[in-house]
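Can't paste images in this forum, so I'm doing it all in text. The chain is below; anyone willing to post the predicted structure tokens underneath?
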Amino acid sequence: MKEWSIIFYFSSSICVAAAIIFICFGSSEKQPWNNPAPEKESSAEPGSSSPTGANQERESISEDDIAFIYQTH
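Text version of the structure:
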């Protein structure tokens, strides 16, 4: 049991040291690399495929469709 207490104290000291370093040297200033470039608006028509081929529109599913799915499986 003594071996586990050594591991516990060692792990705890690493966590406390990391917390102290974070408190001393961390800041809440916004960094310049945090400002991503704005996305360009697509010239594609609504309903057309995206560059990846996926359609961005969503179609709602009715209760009849859900009932049909459960009946066929």
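The first helix runs from residue 2 to 25. The mean pLDDT is 81.
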